[in-house]
Design goal:
This protein has 251 residues and is of the alpha/beta class. It has helices spanning 15-28, 43-47, 59-65, 91-95, 104-110, 129-137, 155-168, 188-201, 215-222, 226-229, 234-250, and strands at residues 2-6, 33-37, 72-73, 79-82, 118-122, 140-145, 174-183, 205-211. Strands 3-4-2-5-1-6-7-8 form an eight-stranded mixed sheet, with helices on both faces.
Amino acid sequence: MRTLAIAQQKGGVGKTTSTANLGAGFARQGLRVLVVDCDPQGSLTLALGMDPMEVNSNIGDAMLAGAGVPSCRTSVEGLDLCPATRLLADVEFQLAPKVGRERFLSRTLKQTNGKYDLAILDCPPSLGLLTINCLTAAEAVFVPVTPSLLGTAGLRDLLSTVEEVREGINPDLRVGGVFITFADCRTVAGRRAETELREDLGSLVMETTVGRRIAHEYSAQAGMPVVALEPQSPAAAEYLALADEVLSRVD
């Protein structure tokens, strides 16, 4: 099983929306996909139609118990979800005093080998122990950014953390790419910000750009990724193209 992390320490950049739609996009290609909500806010759980208040166990419970990943089916064929609850916030405190605290998620995910082709980890918007566990378990991390000064704030810190994890814990980890979300090519400011980001980061920035589209708000209300809800829409086409590009970069 290949494991990817979607990480960004700044909230509101489309991290969870991207995780849900990439998962659905990969499932449409016939892959068996597990998405893991590692964020105590439970946004991915909500985005896939579940209420975090009704979830009995989360990935943190499995990590601490040494158990397998608790997962359930979603409305998208081939896509399973490991949901989150707010109790996940307590896991970092419980992990802190433990030996090898960075590797608990990695050990838990290994118990699913053979069941899935791909796992995608939706990281919390922070650089705490849960995120470090995600980076330790992943072979590649993909980073969503919005083309604005505030959108790229913290990007350097995240990339620095990825490098530290790669050097000290997980030598197989690499940055698969940075992808632009909520782009607005209709404005001069939006086009300039995207151009500057591409000039600054070069080939690290992926070709596919995800635009700011109302379809994502409708899909969130429906509890389904837009790739599944409106597969013929421009919003879905962007994420399907991004899924192809992610796979090409991983391979």
